[in-house]
Specification:
mainly alpha, 134 residues, single chain, globular
Length: 134
């Protein structure tokens, strides 16, 4: 019985270590969709730092494509809301709204504009006041 408990404990700790570990290097051959998906996978697993790295890498590699840039910025905003980094969330959501404001109507699907507006509306009022006063 003690051996079984010990074995299960070792397996659990090993799994926890490998599933929450920091990614060392992001493969160069990943497409923007693959990077975003990896970020979403990491987010789902609670590995928020890894998710952030994938989203930022998406912007670094594919940020010239405005649609990809918008998607990655939204994912970052969503991540920062989860981690209660409201200023970072606000910056990312506002960036998306600025792109829509400066683009011709219909240039991009309206979904991310609505999601960015919704994201900002979920920032606690006291936090939003602090952010806007800076």
């Amino acid at each position: 019985m003690k051996k079984t408990v010990l074995l299960l404990s070792v397996l659990f700790l090993s799994f926890s270590f490998f599933s929450c570990g920091t990614i060392e290097e992001i493969p160069e051959d990943l497409s923007s969709a693959q990077l975003l998906q990896q970020g979403q996978n990491e987010y789902s697993n609670g590995a928020y730092e890894n998710a952030e790295r994938y989203y930022l890498e998406t912007i670094k590699r594919y940020g010239d494509d405005t649609q990809t840039y918008i998607e990655a910025r939204y994912e970052l905003g969503h991540l920062y809301m989860k981690t209660k980094e409201y200023k970072k969330a606000y910056i990312n959501f506002s960036d998306i709204l600025n792109i829509y404001e400066l683009s011709p109507i219909g240039a991009f699907p309206p979904a991310y504009k609505k999601l960015a507006e919704l994201g900002i509306s979920k920032i606690p009022e006291t936090e939003l006041e602090k952010i806007k006063s800076e």
